[in-house]
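Aim 2 progress. For Solute carrier organic anion transporter family member, the working sequence is reproduced below.
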Amino acid sequence: MAPRIADMPQDFEASLCLPSTKALASASSNSSCSSYTEARHLAVVGIMFTAQTLLGVGGVPIQPFGISYIDDFSHNSNSPLYLGILFAVTMMGPGMAYGLGSLMLRLYVDIDRMPEGGINLTSKDPRWVGAWWLGFLISAGAVALAAIPYFFFPKEMPKEKQELRFRRKGLAVSDPPVSKGEDSSSEQSPADSPEKKDNLAQIAPDLTVIQFIKVFPRVLLRTLRHPIFLLVVLSQVCMSSMAAGMATFLPKFLERQFSVTASYANLLIGCLTIPLAIVGIVVGGILVKRLRLGPVHCGTLCLLSALCCLVLSPLFFMGCSSHQIAGISHQPGAQPGLELFPGCMESCSCPSDDFNPVCDSSSRVEYITPCHAGCRSRVVQEAPDKSQVFYTNCSCVAGGGPVPAGSCDSACGHLVLPFMILVSLGAALASVTHTPSFMLILRGVKKEDKTLAVGIQFMLMRVLAWMPSPVIHGSAIDTTCVYWAHSCGRQAVCHYYDHDLLRNRFIGLQFFFKTGSLACFALILAILRQQDKEERTKATIPNPGLQQQLLASEAKKEPEESRV
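Predicted structure tokens for this construct:
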């Protein structure tokens, strides 16, 4: 769309090389810092926090309780497959969200108009802000519709027939032979043994809130003392920290490192990374079911998958250094700041807080604004789909221009697809560990503690991974910034990063969390092998009490045989 002539002068003239009087006048007219604006922003942040809290509460019946619900009413051999399908379908949500976000980010945040002043932005412009809020409205409507079938679920799910036959066979093998009367009474009330009554009482759902609060610390300590449970949770915390960092900052990393748009970055993640992660989850569930993997073999599968994922982590070499940005110094130990080139723009008075980058494609030098390039005029080339803005009469550019508006493209943009393929393969291998690690928890803790153990696991993952990991990644990325924008006298947004530092620190954090997960799985496998070895040793050592009973029975039989 063509810019309106009436609204054009304010913003565009501020970006051009102007005399000092005009520059001061335009700068003073754009000051808008008030306490009312800050209070309104805080109110919006509070609404977002409330919405995220409600979203977390609504997700509890699906993940922590749903996992235990499926494992309780399914056959032991079918449970891994069902959980793998649950996790895979759960992962489809982020995939669809990235696809939806890719479409929404192609629209400007105010979908009915462009910014004031006639600025005609494109999706590749650093100042572009997509319609992020539109995806929330669509997703909220879809969640409300998907929640309706939950009202029709029964209070208790009918158990699988295979599960019942399996339990009857197990009871028939384990119980000693009894008389017919005893057998009929046991068939009528198979759960009348004291141990089973105790288990049923412990998992009874009629606990009051006060009783639950009294029991919870004891169950929590008993669960946290379980070494396998604790190590599995720590390994999943490391994996979740890696996933949280990737989900939050991978689009930004792709934008900065490879000069792709936010829409294209989300499309790559939704079409490559998420589908391969879903495949990895399903493959892990199928392997556990088809191969009937026990705890030791589940630990081995998790260790091998984490090791292969770690091998694909060193992506430090896939990228390139930052291109030259006129006036910005980022030498080691120097204070980042603006150092204007002398001579070519002595007559210009450029505002320090303005940001409207232009790129000299011949020398691959980027300028913060047309004013810093010494440009005094602009030309708009109209096109059917979009218009392109060029700046001319630039005293700091060889030949005077023209120079196009927008940042310079990265020299390694062709590496974005190989980079995403390796990242997606690593995500698939990491996802293979998802179902086996959950089976280690479900088969390792007591049955009456299963639901609480899964709930504690998700709580620890939220507190130790999903909450701090984005903060850690964001802080590490902020340390690579070389030019900050300031708003109302405070540090606002980073305009330029050191690409080498950004790549090393972002990939380095991913490597750190993957190494932690690998170490946890190695300890899990060592403990499981030690436990398996101790069980085999106990099985081979004869029981003295049993030997005495056998000798006594043989001594009683000898007189009878002599009489015969």
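The CA atoms of residues 283 and 432 lie 6 Å apart. This observation will guide construct design in the next reporting period.
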